[in-house]
């Protein structure tokens, strides 16, 4: 039976990960010299030779100006106290991340391994708040929302920055002369909301939104107006005029996901759950809605209710936007086809916490439980997966805990970009662990 064969590459030098020498499908970096505990590494030299024979680095070089080993350790220290709020693949050679403290990280790759790490602290202390809850990285601007302030900030990059970013291998840091920071107030009761942002494909309008159940956690310090109660804001992102709130609305349901359509640039697509807890309802459901801006107001132009056997905990929209994949609390999956108004139900080994479609839409990958990775095709048939081994043992779940020791759980996964930033040719998934490390799962597709 066919299965997905993969390699797990950990961008870390930590000994605490406890990667086995006999695990030829899992790789990490090591410091120079013999291992600290030789008795635990019987095949240390054999695996070193195995890696180097395949062109994989064993010890990160530390030559100037890159000083890769020091940069990797600095990144690991940052991840111990900060979360990765956004990951963006510019192309197959360049991955960018925004951390919750405002640090921008750019990782340049050779295959699945790190070639350079650029840690840019230019934005730290220059933002309206200390904690970034969400961000979007693009060629023209960086969009951010914050925990402590009801504001959205945009960092506009000038032409010089954009030109250097287009190479896909930018390692130069931002400078004050290259950026312009603007902010705009959005609604909400005030402070400590997990606000999220999204950017349109044309990068001229943005969304800021948050869940309705977060509003009940704090009392209003004033008598709220309708605008203050709204939780979905449409914002203009003109470089000349800065950020400006165009309109806002309060969603009927509790949003699980909000984003711009990639096909109809000014349509906003949401997945909303009933405002009241679904445990007290006779049946569970989710609403998939379409919003548009007309005459200065946001209008919901369509709503489709999807009956479900259990409350959803995650979702992923197919790149074609014709189907919606929902992960349910009872460890099942629902694939809803908008064209035929038909749902397909399939079991899942564990409740999926995060899921993502391959950019071509052929495969969906998800993680849940105790760091278990699962793959499904477009018909929700499970695809067996295994790491490279002398005798590969493919199974419906890939248990990452069998290949490394990590105290923090997975907090996100992102498919890489293909050749020239397109969907074709991508075979890499970024895995983000709470507290580190960063890792990539490289599938050996078509080999």
From TrEMBL:
Alphabetically list the UniProt keywords. Answer: Cell membrane, Cell projection, Cilium, Cilium biogenesis/degradation, Cytoplasm, Cytoskeleton, Membrane, Repeat, WD repeat
Known Pfam families for this protein?
A: Frtz (PF11768)
**Protein name listed in UniProt:** WD repeat containing planar cell polarity effector
GO biological process annotations for this chain's record?
cilium organization; establishment of protein localization; nervous system development
What domain of life is recorded for the organism? Eukaryota
List locations, semicolon-separated. Cell membrane; Cytoplasm, Cytoskeleton, Cilium axoneme
Please tell me the species this chain comes from. Answer: Fundulus heteroclitus (Killifish)
Q: Does the keyword Membrane apply?
A: yes
Principal cellular location given in the protein's record: membrane
Q: Name one GO cellular component term.
A: axonemal basal plate
Q: Which family does it belong to?
A: Belongs to the WD repeat fritz family.
């Amino acid at each position: 039976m066919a299965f997905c064969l993969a390699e797990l590459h950990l961008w870390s030098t930590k000994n605490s990960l406890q990667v086995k020498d006999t695990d030829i499908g899992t790789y990490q970096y090591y410091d120079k010299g013999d291992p600290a505990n030789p008795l635990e590494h019987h095949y240390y030299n054999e695996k070193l030779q195995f890696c180097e024979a395949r062109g994989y680095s064993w010890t990160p070089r530390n030559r100037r100006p890159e000083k890769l080993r020091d940069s990797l350790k600095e990144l690991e220290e940052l991840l111990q106290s900060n979360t990765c709020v956004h990951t963006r693949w510019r192309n197959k050679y360049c991955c960018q991340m925004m951390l919750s403290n405002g640090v921008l990280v750019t990782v340049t790759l050779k295959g699945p391994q790190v070639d350079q790490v650029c840690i840019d602290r230019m934005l730290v202390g220059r933002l309206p708040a200390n904690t970034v809850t969400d961000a979007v990285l693009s060629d023209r601007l960086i969009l951010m929302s914050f925990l402590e302030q009801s504001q959205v900030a945009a960092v506009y990059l000038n032409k010089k920055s954009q030109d250097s970013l287009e190479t896909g291998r930018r390692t130069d840091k931002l400078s004050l002369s290259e950026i312009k920071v603007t902010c705009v107030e959005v609604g909400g009761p005030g402070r400590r909301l997990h606000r999220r942002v999204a950017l349109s494909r044309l990068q001229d309008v943005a969304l800021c939104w948050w869940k309705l159940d977060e509003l009940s956690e704090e009392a209003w310090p004033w008598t709220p107006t309708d605008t203050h109660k709204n939780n979905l804001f449409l914002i203009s992102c003109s470089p000349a005029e800065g950020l400006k709130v165009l309109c806002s609305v309060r969603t009927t349901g509790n949003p699980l996901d909000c984003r711009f359509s990639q096909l109809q640039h000014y349509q906003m697509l949401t997945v909303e759950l009933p405002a009241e807890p679904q445990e007290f309802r006779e049946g569970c459901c989710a609403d998939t809605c379409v919003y548009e801006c007309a005459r200065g107001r946001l209008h919901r132009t369509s709503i489709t209710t999807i009956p479900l056997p259990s409350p959803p905990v995650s979702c992923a929209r197919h790149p074609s936007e014709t189907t919606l994949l929902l992960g349910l609390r009872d460890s099942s999956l629902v694939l809803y086809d908008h064209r035929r108004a038909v749902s397909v139900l399939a079991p899942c080994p564990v409740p999926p916490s995060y899921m993502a479609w391959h950019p071509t839409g052929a495969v969906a990958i998800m993680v849940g439980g105790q760091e278990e990775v699962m793959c499904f095709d477009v018909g929700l048939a499970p695809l067996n997966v295994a790491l490279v081994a002398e005798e590969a043992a493919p199974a419906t779940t890939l248990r990452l805990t069998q290949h490394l020791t990590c105290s923090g759980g997975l907090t996100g996964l992102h498919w890489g970009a293909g050749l020239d930033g397109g969907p074709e040719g991508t075979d890499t998934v970024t895995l983000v662990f709470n507290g580190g490390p960063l890792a990539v799962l490289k599938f050996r597709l078509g080999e």
